Amino acid sequence: MELISSVKMLEELDHHHRQLLCDALERVEFKAGDVRPNLHGNTIFRQGDKGDVLYLIKNGTADVSVESVGKVATLINGVAFGERAILNEGEVRTATVTAVSNMVCYTLGRSECHQLLGNVTEVRLIKVLRQVPILSSLNQQQLYNMSKLLSLVQYKAGEVVFRKGDI
Predict the structure, then answer these.
(1) What is the pLDDT of residue 40?
(2) pLDDT tens, position by position, 107-137
(3) Tens digit of pLDDT for each residue in 58-95?
(4) 3-state secondary structure the chain
(5) In sequence order, which residues have a C-beta less than 8 Å from that of residue 92 and are 6 or more positions away?
(6) Which of these, 99, 95, 40, lies nearest to 69 by C-alpha position?
(7) Pairs from 63-72 (Cβ < 8 Å, separation ≥ 24)
(8) Does the structure show a pLDDT above 50 at 14?
């Protein structure tokens, strides 16, 4: 349960939803030096790969590197990585992650996450809705129901969102 709680974008989930995700986690092991199908050596995933899985490190260490920059971070126990993969379909990995020690990770796929929680965007919306003063008395289920009614609309800089008097 604490591994799920360590994922920033999932911190707003209630106990029930966290438990659902915990039950869906799959254990995977990476051994330093292992050769995995379609990958070289101990690489968990490569920059540019299509992503659809979030990883949570139970034990071990991994390095994060970016092409033309090199190593940018080291990941340790309790850290989640690859979370953008469960947010957006077709999201590509922005870095390469390589096991530098034997690792035990738990994974959560986008499809499992969406089946259990609905679109992850709704989780974000609930967090935003919770910050609106007039909605502060709503419970988790009411906020969830409201989030299902909303849709994401993007506007370009300078574009009119609405004018005084619009209904």
Answers:
(1) 47
(2) 988 888 777 766 556 667 787 888 899 998 9
(3) 999 999 999 999 999 999 998 889 888 777 777 899 99
(4) CHHHHCCHHHCCCCHHHHHHHHHHCEEEEECCCCCCCCCCCCEEECCCCECCEEEEEEECCEEEEECCCEEEEEECCCCEECCHHHHCCCCECCCEEEECCCEEEEEEEHHHHHHHHCCHHHHHHHHHHHCCHHHCCCCHHHHHHHHHHCCCCCCCCCCCCCCCCCC
(5) 47, 48, 49, 50, 51
(6) 95
(7) 63/97, 63/98, 63/100, 64/95, 64/96, 64/97, 65/95, 65/96, 65/98, 66/94, 66/95, 66/96, 67/96
(8) yes
Tokens of 97: 């992650």
